[in-house]
Amino acid sequence: MASTAAVPFWRSAGMTYITYSNICANLVRNCLKEPYKSEAIGREKVHFSATKWADGKPQKPSNFFFSLKLFPIVSICCFSRSRVWLRHAIGDSVCTVV
Amino acid sequence: MFRQVAHRLLTRSTTTTYPIFPATTTLRSFSTEVSTDASSGDSAFIDAWKKVAPNIDPPKTPSQYMEPRPPTPSTLPSKLTVNFVLPYAAELSKAEVDMVIVPATTGQMGILPGHVPTIAELKPGLLSVHEGNDVKKYFISSGFAFVHSNSYADILAVEAVPLDRIDPAQVQKGLSEFTQKLNSASSDLDKAEAQIGVDVHSALNSALTG
User: Fold this and answer.
1) CB-based contacts of B105: which residues, under 8 Å, 6+ apart?
2) Which residue of B143, B170, B192 is in closest CB contact with A31?
């Protein structure tokens, strides 16, 4: 029994609702006037440090306190204000959201 | 075996295993039927606790810390109570208003006191809060609106900005940029992103001009 419910265009393109919602929010934030725009973008910044692990030992952590905004949409995860544990697609690194 | 599982799921029965033997099977009620005043706690649990540890006060359960849901009034209330919240702030908290118009995916939806309980997904668009002769307008990026039977409306939005904070030049620039991207897009994902860009910017445009 195939489900024939009409899906939104972003769902059929492989996007999840959260990604869609975050893209919309980022676009709206980009269209704000100056003091509000920097406030909004500052509010959404996330600091994280990514550590690659090999043979059970952590290697030098990269991207120390790299604050990012407008994270590329095609990547695995979307950053939001909530703490997110994410797995790097390449190798076995663990990223901690600070 | 599966028939038994299906039967138990349909009748929503649970087996209480407090130190009361034999284990009794009770039917769980739907959340909308449960009395919302849980300040006295679950009586079966308290009785079982008192039997085992009569000198210690029974611990409080999470529902005892929560404010009970305001009951559905029998007559139509005159005002709608709106909780309009963003992830970082509550724009309106229990504000009594006359009407709210939300941009649902199915079109602009007006919510009046006594509206049928609804869950609506919101699309990028204009939200207006009508109180007497005042109308406050916000542009919402996306979110959800829940209307409850007791004339409470919860509107959750990811970004909501009053219209005077939007820069029209940026909106036009974004609109032309994304229309171009839509025409030149190749993969499904690129097309979807460009389409989202076009939708959001044209909604911003019509909010500013309309």
Assistant:
1) B120, B121, B122, B123
2) B170
